[in-house]
Amino acid sequence: MRRVTIYDSMSRATRIFAPMQPPRVGLYVCGLTPYAPAHVGHGRTFVIFDMVARALRRWGYRVFYVQNVTNLDDKLIARAAAENDDPLALAERHFAGFLRSMERLGARSVNYYPFATDYVPEILEQVKGLVDRGYAYVADDGSVYFEVAKFARYGALSGQKVEALKPGARVEVDPRKRAPEDFVIWKAATPGEPSWESPWGPGRPGWHIEDTAMTGRLFGAKYDLHGGGLDLNFPHHEAEIALSESATGLAPMVEYWMHSGLVAMTGEKMSKSIGNVSSLEQAIDDFGPGVLRLYYLNASYRSPVDFVPGKSLEEAREAYGRLSAPADRIAEILERDGPDRAGDPLPKELEEAAERLVDDLDTTLANDFNSREAIALLFGWARRLAEILPQIERLDGAGLTALAAPYAWATETLGLFERTPGARSGGWATVVPLLLAARARARARGDYAESDRIRDELRAAGVEVEDGADGSAWQFADAK
RNA sequence: GCCGAGGUGGCAGAAUGGUUAAUGCGACGGACUGCAGAUCCGUUUCCUGGGGGUUCGAUUCCCUCCCUCGGCUCCA
Fold this sequence. Notes:
Shape: elongated
Number of strands: 15
Number of helices: 16
Protein backbone atom coordinates (compact mmCIF):
# COMPACT_ATOMS: atom_id res chain seq x y z
CA MET A 1 0.00 0.00 0.00
CA ARG A 2 1.24 3.37 -0.99
CA ARG A 3 1.67 6.23 1.43
CA VAL A 4 -1.37 8.46 0.94
CA THR A 5 -2.04 11.83 2.47
CA ILE A 6 -5.50 13.33 2.81
CA TYR A 7 -6.59 16.80 3.82
CA ASP A 8 -8.90 16.14 6.73
CA SER A 9 -11.50 18.87 7.19
CA MET A 10 -11.94 18.01 10.87
CA SER A 11 -8.33 18.67 11.86
CA ARG A 12 -7.83 21.12 8.96
CA ALA A 13 -4.53 19.47 8.17
CA THR A 14 -3.11 17.08 5.64
CA ARG A 15 -2.64 13.75 7.38
CA ILE A 16 -1.17 10.41 6.46
CA PHE A 17 -3.99 8.05 5.69
CA ALA A 18 -4.07 5.12 8.08
CA PRO A 19 -7.26 3.06 7.95
CA MET A 20 -8.33 1.25 11.08
CA GLN A 21 -8.11 -2.22 9.57
CA PRO A 22 -5.83 -2.05 6.56
CA PRO A 23 -6.19 -2.82 3.79
CA ARG A 24 -9.91 -2.39 4.35
CA VAL A 25 -11.33 1.10 3.98
CA GLY A 26 -14.88 2.10 4.78
CA LEU A 27 -15.86 5.04 2.58
CA TYR A 28 -19.17 6.79 2.97
CA VAL A 29 -20.22 9.64 0.71
CA CYS A 30 -23.42 11.61 1.07
CA GLY A 31 -25.43 10.99 -2.05
CA LEU A 32 -28.24 13.06 -3.41
CA THR A 33 -31.93 13.59 -2.95
CA PRO A 34 -33.29 12.62 -6.34
CA TYR A 35 -36.20 15.00 -6.71
CA ALA A 36 -34.92 16.52 -9.96
CA PRO A 37 -32.41 15.56 -12.64
CA ALA A 38 -28.78 15.75 -11.55
CA HIS A 39 -26.76 18.80 -12.58
CA VAL A 40 -23.14 19.48 -13.42
CA GLY A 41 -22.36 20.27 -9.78
CA HIS A 42 -23.46 16.85 -8.60
CA GLY A 43 -21.31 15.29 -11.26
CA ARG A 44 -18.22 16.94 -9.85
CA THR A 45 -18.68 15.59 -6.35
CA PHE A 46 -19.30 12.05 -7.45
CA VAL A 47 -16.54 11.98 -10.04
CA ILE A 48 -14.15 13.22 -7.37
CA PHE A 49 -15.05 10.47 -4.94
CA ASP A 50 -15.02 7.97 -7.76
CA MET A 51 -11.41 8.99 -8.33
CA VAL A 52 -10.66 8.64 -4.61
CA ALA A 53 -12.02 5.09 -4.57
CA ARG A 54 -10.29 4.16 -7.83
CA ALA A 55 -6.95 5.46 -6.64
CA LEU A 56 -7.12 3.84 -3.22
CA ARG A 57 -8.00 0.54 -4.83
CA ARG A 58 -5.09 0.82 -7.21
CA TRP A 59 -2.82 1.35 -4.25
CA GLY A 60 -3.93 -1.84 -2.60
CA TYR A 61 -6.72 -0.66 -0.33
CA ARG A 62 -9.91 -2.65 -0.31
CA VAL A 63 -12.46 0.10 -0.38
CA PHE A 64 -16.09 -0.49 0.44
CA TYR A 65 -17.83 2.58 -0.93
CA VAL A 66 -21.35 3.39 0.27
CA GLN A 67 -23.36 6.30 -1.09
CA ASN A 68 -26.81 6.86 0.29
CA VAL A 69 -29.95 7.92 -1.52
CA THR A 70 -32.37 10.17 0.33
CA ASN A 71 -35.44 8.86 -1.41
CA LEU A 72 -37.95 10.51 0.93
CA ASP A 73 -37.87 14.04 2.27
CA ASP A 74 -39.82 17.30 2.22
CA LYS A 75 -38.68 18.35 -1.22
CA LEU A 76 -39.52 15.00 -2.75
CA ILE A 77 -42.95 15.07 -1.17
CA ALA A 78 -43.59 18.62 -2.34
CA ARG A 79 -42.39 17.90 -5.86
CA ALA A 80 -44.41 14.72 -6.07
CA ALA A 81 -47.53 16.55 -4.92
CA ALA A 82 -46.98 19.22 -7.56
CA GLU A 83 -46.61 16.57 -10.25
CA ASN A 84 -49.41 14.45 -8.86
CA ASP A 85 -47.01 11.58 -8.38
CA ASP A 86 -45.89 9.28 -5.60
CA PRO A 87 -42.73 10.59 -3.86
CA LEU A 88 -41.02 7.21 -3.72
CA ALA A 89 -41.73 6.59 -7.39
CA LEU A 90 -40.46 10.04 -8.25
CA ALA A 91 -37.25 9.36 -6.35
CA GLU A 92 -36.87 6.02 -8.05
CA ARG A 93 -37.19 7.63 -11.45
CA HIS A 94 -34.69 10.40 -10.85
CA PHE A 95 -32.28 8.03 -9.20
CA ALA A 96 -32.40 5.81 -12.27
CA GLY A 97 -31.50 8.85 -14.36
CA PHE A 98 -28.67 9.69 -11.99
CA LEU A 99 -27.31 6.15 -12.18
CA ARG A 100 -27.39 6.30 -15.95
CA SER A 101 -25.33 9.49 -15.89
CA MET A 102 -22.87 7.94 -13.44
CA GLU A 103 -22.53 4.89 -15.62
CA ARG A 104 -21.85 7.02 -18.68
CA LEU A 105 -19.32 9.05 -16.70
CA GLY A 106 -17.56 5.88 -15.68
CA ALA A 107 -18.29 6.56 -12.02
CA ARG A 108 -18.80 2.95 -11.12
CA SER A 109 -16.88 2.60 -7.90
CA VAL A 110 -19.83 2.75 -5.50
CA ASN A 111 -20.43 -0.69 -4.00
CA TYR A 112 -23.82 0.01 -2.50
CA TYR A 113 -26.49 2.70 -2.83
CA PRO A 114 -28.68 2.30 0.26
CA PHE A 115 -32.12 3.90 0.16
CA ALA A 116 -33.29 5.76 3.26
CA THR A 117 -36.61 3.98 3.33
CA ASP A 118 -34.86 0.61 3.43
CA TYR A 119 -33.26 1.55 6.76
CA VAL A 120 -36.33 2.56 8.74
CA PRO A 121 -35.82 -0.21 11.36
CA GLU A 122 -32.22 0.90 11.96
CA ILE A 123 -33.31 4.53 12.08
CA LEU A 124 -36.08 3.79 14.58
CA GLU A 125 -33.67 1.84 16.73
CA GLN A 126 -31.24 4.73 16.78
CA VAL A 127 -33.97 7.28 17.52
CA LYS A 128 -35.21 5.12 20.40
CA GLY A 129 -31.73 4.79 21.80
CA LEU A 130 -31.21 8.53 21.68
CA VAL A 131 -34.52 9.20 23.41
CA ASP A 132 -33.77 6.57 26.08
CA ARG A 133 -30.36 8.04 26.76
CA GLY A 134 -31.76 11.53 27.04
CA TYR A 135 -30.18 12.98 23.90
CA ALA A 136 -33.50 13.41 22.10
CA TYR A 137 -36.98 14.49 23.06
CA VAL A 138 -40.47 13.92 21.69
CA ALA A 139 -42.60 16.89 20.69
CA ASP A 140 -46.36 17.03 21.13
CA ASP A 141 -47.10 16.00 17.57
CA GLY A 142 -44.89 12.89 17.78
CA SER A 143 -41.81 14.33 16.08
CA VAL A 144 -38.50 13.57 17.74
CA TYR A 145 -35.69 16.12 18.04
CA PHE A 146 -32.04 15.79 18.89
CA GLU A 147 -31.08 18.17 21.69
CA VAL A 148 -27.84 19.75 20.60
CA ALA A 149 -27.08 21.13 24.08
CA LYS A 150 -26.56 17.55 25.25
CA PHE A 151 -23.62 17.02 22.91
CA ALA A 152 -20.58 18.97 24.01
CA ARG A 153 -18.47 18.44 20.92
CA TYR A 154 -21.08 19.98 18.64
CA GLY A 155 -19.38 22.39 16.24
CA ALA A 156 -15.99 20.67 16.16
CA LEU A 157 -16.13 19.97 12.43
CA SER A 158 -17.50 23.27 11.17
CA GLY A 159 -16.05 25.59 13.79
CA GLN A 160 -19.55 26.88 14.41
CA LYS A 161 -20.49 27.97 17.90
CA VAL A 162 -24.12 27.36 18.69
CA GLU A 163 -24.56 30.76 20.32
CA ALA A 164 -23.22 32.47 17.21
CA LEU A 165 -25.69 30.89 14.84
CA LYS A 166 -28.32 33.00 13.25
CA PRO A 167 -31.56 31.05 13.51
CA GLY A 168 -33.85 31.38 10.57
CA ALA A 169 -31.16 32.72 8.25
CA ARG A 170 -32.37 30.42 5.53
CA VAL A 171 -34.81 27.94 6.98
CA GLU A 172 -37.85 28.75 9.06
CA VAL A 173 -37.47 28.11 12.76
CA ASP A 174 -39.57 25.17 13.87
CA PRO A 175 -41.66 26.13 16.93
CA ARG A 176 -41.72 22.56 18.23
CA LYS A 177 -38.02 22.71 19.07
CA ARG A 178 -36.72 23.47 22.53
CA ALA A 179 -33.78 25.31 20.99
CA PRO A 180 -33.32 26.57 17.44
CA GLU A 181 -30.19 24.46 16.95
CA ASP A 182 -32.03 21.21 17.69
CA PHE A 183 -32.83 19.15 14.63
CA VAL A 184 -35.52 16.66 13.76
CA ILE A 185 -34.63 12.97 13.56
CA TRP A 186 -38.14 11.56 13.25
CA LYS A 187 -40.94 13.50 11.61
CA ALA A 188 -44.56 12.95 12.56
CA ALA A 189 -46.49 12.06 9.43
CA THR A 190 -48.94 14.33 7.70
CA PRO A 191 -51.84 12.54 6.04
CA GLY A 192 -51.09 11.26 2.57
CA GLU A 193 -47.35 10.94 3.08
CA PRO A 194 -45.52 7.64 3.24
CA SER A 195 -45.14 6.79 6.92
CA TRP A 196 -44.05 4.05 9.30
CA GLU A 197 -45.29 3.06 12.69
CA SER A 198 -43.22 4.16 15.65
CA PRO A 199 -43.57 4.39 19.45
CA TRP A 200 -44.52 8.04 18.90
CA GLY A 201 -47.10 7.42 16.21
CA PRO A 202 -46.77 7.26 12.42
CA GLY A 203 -43.85 9.17 10.95
CA ARG A 204 -40.83 9.13 8.68
CA PRO A 205 -37.07 9.54 9.10
CA GLY A 206 -35.36 12.91 9.48
CA TRP A 207 -32.50 13.61 7.14
CA HIS A 208 -29.38 13.51 9.29
CA ILE A 209 -30.12 10.26 11.05
CA GLU A 210 -30.51 8.33 7.86
CA ASP A 211 -26.74 8.42 7.32
CA THR A 212 -25.78 7.43 10.85
CA ALA A 213 -28.28 4.57 10.90
CA MET A 214 -26.80 3.29 7.64
CA THR A 215 -23.18 3.64 8.62
CA GLY A 216 -23.87 2.17 12.03
CA ARG A 217 -25.32 -0.87 10.36
CA LEU A 218 -22.79 -1.16 7.54
CA PHE A 219 -19.55 0.01 9.17
CA GLY A 220 -20.18 0.03 12.91
CA ALA A 221 -19.63 2.91 15.30
CA LYS A 222 -16.41 4.06 13.65
CA TYR A 223 -15.15 4.03 10.11
CA ASP A 224 -12.41 5.52 7.99
CA LEU A 225 -13.46 8.07 5.45
CA HIS A 226 -16.48 10.30 4.98
CA GLY A 227 -16.97 12.48 1.92
CA GLY A 228 -19.47 14.92 0.57
CA GLY A 229 -19.95 18.35 -0.89
CA LEU A 230 -18.69 21.29 1.10
CA ASP A 231 -22.22 22.58 1.53
CA LEU A 232 -23.00 19.58 3.72
CA ASN A 233 -20.34 20.42 6.27
CA PHE A 234 -22.84 22.26 8.42
CA PRO A 235 -25.33 21.33 9.62
CA HIS A 236 -25.51 17.89 8.07
CA HIS A 237 -22.13 16.44 8.89
CA GLU A 238 -22.05 18.11 12.27
CA ALA A 239 -25.40 16.48 13.01
CA GLU A 240 -24.12 13.09 11.89
CA ILE A 241 -21.27 13.31 14.35
CA ALA A 242 -23.57 14.32 17.18
CA LEU A 243 -26.02 11.52 16.41
CA SER A 244 -23.55 8.75 15.93
CA GLU A 245 -21.29 9.57 18.83
CA SER A 246 -24.23 10.09 21.17
CA ALA A 247 -25.88 6.88 20.07
CA THR A 248 -22.79 4.70 20.23
CA GLY A 249 -20.75 6.42 22.89
CA LEU A 250 -17.73 5.95 20.63
CA ALA A 251 -15.70 8.70 19.00
CA PRO A 252 -14.63 9.75 16.54
CA MET A 253 -17.31 8.46 14.24
CA VAL A 254 -15.00 8.87 11.29
CA GLU A 255 -11.23 9.34 11.02
CA TYR A 256 -10.97 11.45 7.87
CA TRP A 257 -13.40 13.98 6.47
CA MET A 258 -13.15 14.98 2.83
CA HIS A 259 -15.18 17.86 1.40
CA SER A 260 -15.31 18.59 -2.28
CA GLY A 261 -15.56 22.14 -3.58
CA LEU A 262 -18.76 23.35 -5.13
CA VAL A 263 -19.48 24.28 -8.71
CA ALA A 264 -20.65 27.83 -9.17
CA MET A 265 -22.69 28.88 -12.16
CA THR A 266 -21.05 32.11 -13.34
CA GLY A 267 -20.41 33.23 -9.81
CA GLU A 268 -23.32 31.79 -7.89
CA LYS A 269 -23.67 28.30 -6.45
CA MET A 270 -25.32 25.88 -8.82
CA SER A 271 -28.29 24.57 -6.97
CA LYS A 272 -31.56 22.90 -7.66
CA SER A 273 -33.35 25.23 -5.30
CA ILE A 274 -31.96 28.35 -7.01
CA GLY A 275 -32.69 26.89 -10.40
CA ASN A 276 -29.46 27.91 -12.12
CA VAL A 277 -28.56 24.38 -13.02
CA SER A 278 -26.95 22.88 -16.05
CA SER A 279 -28.08 19.34 -16.76
CA LEU A 280 -25.48 16.66 -16.24
CA GLU A 281 -27.03 14.36 -18.80
CA GLN A 282 -27.04 17.15 -21.37
CA ALA A 283 -23.38 17.92 -20.69
CA ILE A 284 -22.46 14.27 -21.21
CA ASP A 285 -24.48 14.24 -24.44
CA ASP A 286 -22.76 17.35 -25.73
CA PHE A 287 -19.17 16.76 -24.67
CA GLY A 288 -18.75 13.13 -23.71
CA PRO A 289 -17.66 11.65 -20.42
CA GLY A 290 -13.94 12.14 -20.91
CA VAL A 291 -14.21 15.90 -21.39
CA LEU A 292 -16.44 16.22 -18.36
CA ARG A 293 -14.13 14.18 -16.17
CA LEU A 294 -11.16 16.23 -17.33
CA TYR A 295 -13.06 19.39 -16.44
CA TYR A 296 -13.79 18.06 -12.98
CA LEU A 297 -10.36 16.66 -12.22
CA ASN A 298 -8.40 19.52 -13.75
CA ALA A 299 -8.59 21.49 -10.51
CA SER A 300 -7.98 20.71 -6.88
CA TYR A 301 -10.99 18.78 -5.58
CA ARG A 302 -11.25 21.22 -2.70
CA SER A 303 -11.30 24.49 -4.61
CA PRO A 304 -14.48 26.06 -5.86
CA VAL A 305 -14.82 26.12 -9.64
CA ASP A 306 -16.89 28.39 -11.78
CA PHE A 307 -18.91 26.79 -14.54
CA VAL A 308 -19.29 29.13 -17.47
CA PRO A 309 -21.69 27.84 -20.13
CA GLY A 310 -20.20 28.05 -23.58
CA LYS A 311 -16.68 28.24 -22.22
CA SER A 312 -15.68 25.79 -19.47
CA LEU A 313 -16.46 22.55 -21.25
CA GLU A 314 -15.39 23.90 -24.63
CA GLU A 315 -11.96 24.59 -23.20
CA ALA A 316 -11.84 21.18 -21.58
CA ARG A 317 -12.74 19.64 -24.91
CA GLU A 318 -9.77 21.25 -26.63
CA ALA A 319 -7.46 20.13 -23.86
CA TYR A 320 -8.87 16.62 -23.85
CA GLY A 321 -8.42 16.31 -27.58
CA ARG A 322 -4.78 17.23 -27.37
CA LEU A 323 -4.18 15.02 -24.39
CA SER A 324 -5.83 11.94 -25.79
CA ALA A 325 -4.58 12.16 -29.39
CA PRO A 326 -1.42 10.05 -28.91
CA ALA A 327 -3.29 7.52 -26.81
CA ASP A 328 -5.95 7.21 -29.46
CA ARG A 329 -3.35 6.62 -32.13
CA ILE A 330 -1.64 3.90 -30.12
CA ALA A 331 -4.94 2.26 -29.25
CA GLU A 332 -5.99 2.30 -32.91
CA ILE A 333 -2.84 0.54 -33.99
CA LEU A 334 -3.15 -2.06 -31.26
CA GLU A 335 -6.82 -2.64 -32.04
CA ARG A 336 -5.99 -3.09 -35.69
CA ASP A 337 -2.91 -5.32 -35.38
CA GLY A 338 -3.23 -6.83 -31.92
CA PRO A 339 -0.80 -6.72 -29.02
CA ASP A 340 1.61 -9.11 -30.76
CA ARG A 341 2.14 -6.80 -33.68
CA ALA A 342 5.63 -6.93 -35.17
CA GLY A 343 7.77 -3.83 -35.40
CA ASP A 344 10.70 -1.98 -33.93
CA PRO A 345 11.51 -2.53 -30.28
CA LEU A 346 10.94 0.40 -27.97
CA PRO A 347 14.15 2.26 -27.09
CA LYS A 348 15.22 1.52 -23.54
CA GLU A 349 15.16 5.19 -22.65
CA LEU A 350 11.49 5.58 -23.50
CA GLU A 351 10.55 2.40 -21.73
CA GLU A 352 12.18 3.64 -18.57
CA ALA A 353 10.65 7.07 -18.93
CA ALA A 354 7.18 5.55 -19.13
CA GLU A 355 7.78 3.45 -16.03
CA ARG A 356 9.17 6.41 -14.14
CA LEU A 357 6.22 8.54 -15.15
CA VAL A 358 3.70 6.02 -13.87
CA ASP A 359 5.49 6.01 -10.55
CA ASP A 360 5.50 9.81 -10.48
CA LEU A 361 1.81 9.85 -11.28
CA ASP A 362 1.05 7.60 -8.34
CA THR A 363 3.17 9.70 -6.02
CA THR A 364 1.50 12.88 -7.22
CA LEU A 365 -2.03 11.60 -6.86
CA ALA A 366 -1.27 10.09 -3.47
CA ASN A 367 -0.57 13.60 -2.28
CA ASP A 368 -4.13 14.46 -1.31
CA PHE A 369 -5.45 13.36 -4.69
CA ASN A 370 -3.71 16.05 -6.67
CA SER A 371 -5.30 15.16 -9.96
CA ARG A 372 -4.43 18.50 -11.52
CA GLU A 373 -0.73 17.94 -11.10
CA ALA A 374 -1.08 14.41 -12.44
CA ILE A 375 -2.85 15.74 -15.51
CA ALA A 376 -0.03 18.22 -16.05
CA LEU A 377 2.40 15.28 -16.08
CA LEU A 378 0.20 13.51 -18.61
CA PHE A 379 0.31 16.55 -20.87
CA GLY A 380 4.07 16.37 -20.77
CA TRP A 381 3.90 12.76 -21.91
CA ALA A 382 1.41 13.59 -24.65
CA ARG A 383 3.78 16.23 -25.97
CA ARG A 384 6.70 13.83 -25.90
CA LEU A 385 4.75 11.18 -27.79
CA ALA A 386 3.49 13.67 -30.34
CA GLU A 387 7.06 14.61 -31.18
CA ILE A 388 7.98 11.04 -32.03
CA LEU A 389 4.72 10.00 -33.64
CA PRO A 390 6.26 8.67 -36.90
CA GLN A 391 8.58 6.52 -34.83
CA ILE A 392 5.67 5.26 -32.77
CA GLU A 393 3.87 4.02 -35.86
CA ARG A 394 6.69 1.52 -36.44
CA LEU A 395 6.90 0.09 -32.92
CA ASP A 396 5.99 -3.45 -31.99
CA GLY A 397 3.03 -4.30 -29.81
CA ALA A 398 4.96 -4.54 -26.56
CA GLY A 399 6.58 -1.18 -27.17
CA LEU A 400 3.25 0.47 -27.89
CA THR A 401 1.74 -1.00 -24.75
CA ALA A 402 4.65 0.29 -22.71
CA LEU A 403 4.23 3.79 -24.14
CA ALA A 404 0.54 3.73 -23.34
CA ALA A 405 1.14 2.78 -19.70
CA PRO A 406 0.69 6.33 -18.36
CA TYR A 407 -2.61 6.52 -20.21
CA ALA A 408 -3.66 3.18 -18.79
CA TRP A 409 -2.84 4.63 -15.39
CA ALA A 410 -5.10 7.59 -16.09
CA THR A 411 -7.91 5.30 -17.18
CA GLU A 412 -7.60 3.26 -14.00
CA THR A 413 -7.41 6.14 -11.53
CA LEU A 414 -8.93 9.20 -13.19
CA GLY A 415 -11.31 7.38 -15.50
CA LEU A 416 -10.02 9.27 -18.53
CA PHE A 417 -9.50 7.84 -22.02
CA GLU A 418 -11.96 5.01 -21.65
CA ARG A 419 -12.36 3.49 -25.06
CA THR A 420 -15.42 1.75 -26.29
CA PRO A 421 -13.93 -1.37 -27.81
CA GLY A 422 -14.97 -2.17 -31.32
CA ALA A 423 -16.32 1.31 -32.03
CA ARG A 424 -14.66 1.16 -35.41
CA SER A 425 -15.37 -2.46 -36.12
CA GLY A 426 -18.08 -3.86 -38.32
CA GLY A 427 -18.58 -2.51 -41.81
CA TRP A 428 -16.92 0.82 -41.16
CA ALA A 429 -13.44 -0.62 -40.76
CA THR A 430 -13.75 -2.17 -44.20
CA VAL A 431 -15.64 0.45 -46.14
CA VAL A 432 -13.94 3.62 -44.97
CA PRO A 433 -10.39 2.52 -45.89
CA LEU A 434 -11.67 1.46 -49.34
CA LEU A 435 -13.18 4.89 -49.88
CA LEU A 436 -10.04 6.56 -48.64
CA ALA A 437 -7.98 4.49 -51.04
CA ALA A 438 -10.22 5.61 -53.90
CA ARG A 439 -9.88 9.17 -52.73
CA ALA A 440 -6.09 8.85 -52.59
CA ARG A 441 -6.07 7.70 -56.24
CA ALA A 442 -8.25 10.63 -57.20
CA ARG A 443 -5.92 13.04 -55.45
CA ALA A 444 -2.90 11.43 -57.09
CA ARG A 445 -4.29 12.15 -60.54
CA GLY A 446 -5.36 15.65 -59.50
CA ASP A 447 -9.09 14.97 -59.52
CA TYR A 448 -9.89 17.11 -56.51
CA ALA A 449 -13.56 17.32 -57.35
CA GLU A 450 -13.82 13.58 -56.83
CA SER A 451 -11.56 13.74 -53.77
CA ASP A 452 -13.71 16.38 -52.11
CA ARG A 453 -16.89 14.55 -53.05
CA ILE A 454 -15.72 11.44 -51.21
CA ARG A 455 -14.67 13.51 -48.21
CA ASP A 456 -18.05 15.27 -48.12
CA GLU A 457 -19.93 11.99 -48.31
CA LEU A 458 -17.92 10.54 -45.49
CA ARG A 459 -18.53 13.64 -43.43
CA ALA A 460 -22.24 13.31 -44.07
CA ALA A 461 -21.98 9.77 -42.71
CA GLY A 462 -20.32 11.05 -39.57
CA VAL A 463 -16.72 10.26 -40.50
CA GLU A 464 -14.06 12.95 -40.32
CA VAL A 465 -11.08 12.65 -42.65
CA GLU A 466 -7.76 14.23 -41.82
CA ASP A 467 -4.99 14.39 -44.39
CA GLY A 468 -1.48 14.16 -43.04
CA ALA A 469 2.01 13.52 -44.30
CA ASP A 470 1.55 9.73 -44.10
CA GLY A 471 -1.83 9.53 -45.78
CA SER A 472 -5.32 10.09 -44.50
CA ALA A 473 -6.61 9.19 -41.06
CA TRP A 474 -10.23 9.03 -40.08
CA GLN A 475 -12.42 8.99 -37.02
CA PHE A 476 -16.06 9.26 -36.15
CA ALA A 477 -17.05 12.87 -35.62
CA ASP A 478 -18.81 12.04 -32.36
CA ALA A 479 -15.71 10.31 -30.98
CA LYS A 480 -13.89 13.59 -30.52
C1' G B 1 -22.83 39.19 12.73
C1' C B 2 -20.47 34.24 13.22
C1' C B 3 -18.13 29.81 10.82
C1' G B 4 -15.81 27.69 6.49
C1' A B 5 -13.47 27.67 1.60
C1' G B 6 -10.96 30.57 -1.87
C1' G B 7 -8.09 35.27 -4.05
C1' U B 8 -1.75 33.26 -8.76
C1' G B 9 -0.55 35.56 -16.25
C1' G B 10 -5.89 37.60 -21.36
C1' C B 11 -8.72 33.09 -19.23
C1' A B 12 -8.64 28.22 -16.49
C1' G B 13 -5.54 26.43 -12.79
C1' A B 14 -1.02 23.76 -10.01
C1' A B 15 3.39 24.07 -7.03
C1' U B 16 7.59 24.99 -3.64
C1' G B 17 11.10 28.43 2.42
C1' G B 18 15.74 29.51 -2.56
C1' U B 19 17.97 28.49 -10.11
C1' U B 20 13.63 31.23 -15.79
C1' A B 21 6.24 30.17 -10.61
C1' A B 22 3.91 24.06 -13.84
C1' U B 23 0.13 22.56 -17.17
C1' G B 24 -3.91 23.74 -20.33
C1' C B 25 -7.09 27.27 -23.17
C1' G B 26 -6.65 31.56 -26.12
C1' A B 27 -3.56 34.68 -29.22
C1' C B 28 0.55 35.27 -32.62
C1' G B 29 4.38 33.09 -35.93
C1' G B 30 6.01 28.72 -38.52
C1' A B 31 5.81 23.44 -40.52
C1' C B 32 2.62 20.14 -43.04
C1' U B 33 -1.70 20.36 -46.93
C1' G B 34 -4.22 20.78 -53.86
C1' C B 35 -7.69 23.38 -50.43
C1' A B 36 -9.66 22.83 -45.66
C1' G B 37 -9.29 20.70 -41.15
C1' A B 38 -6.61 18.22 -37.80
C1' U B 39 -1.80 17.71 -36.03
C1' C B 40 3.18 19.26 -34.80
C1' C B 41 6.99 23.11 -33.49
C1' G B 42 8.01 27.97 -31.52
C1' U B 43 6.55 32.63 -29.10
C1' U B 44 3.37 34.80 -25.50
C1' U B 45 7.37 34.64 -18.38
C1' C B 46 2.23 36.92 -14.00
C1' C B 47 7.06 37.60 -9.15
C1' U B 48 1.39 35.19 -6.66
C1' G B 49 -5.55 40.56 -3.32
C1' G B 50 -3.41 45.15 0.03
C1' G B 51 -0.23 46.20 4.29
C1' G B 52 3.06 44.64 8.13
C1' G B 53 6.25 40.80 10.44
C1' U B 54 9.70 36.29 10.81
C1' U B 55 13.97 34.84 7.53
C1' C B 56 20.17 35.47 4.29
C1' G B 57 15.74 34.51 1.20
C1' A B 58 8.29 33.98 1.14
C1' U B 59 3.82 33.11 -3.41
C1' U B 60 4.85 29.45 0.61
C1' C B 61 5.19 30.64 7.84
C1' C B 62 2.75 34.55 11.35
C1' C B 63 -0.48 39.07 12.11
C1' U B 64 -3.95 42.40 10.00
C1' C B 65 -7.17 44.39 6.42
C1' C B 66 -9.94 43.97 1.70
C1' C B 67 -12.67 41.05 -1.92
C1' U B 68 -15.45 36.55 -3.83
C1' C B 69 -18.11 32.16 -2.87
C1' G B 70 -20.46 28.70 0.57
C1' G B 71 -23.01 27.64 5.38
C1' C B 72 -25.84 29.41 9.75
C1' U B 73 -30.52 23.42 11.22
C1' C B 74 -33.65 18.49 5.75
C1' C B 75 -28.39 21.83 -0.55
C1' A B 76 -23.36 17.47 -4.00
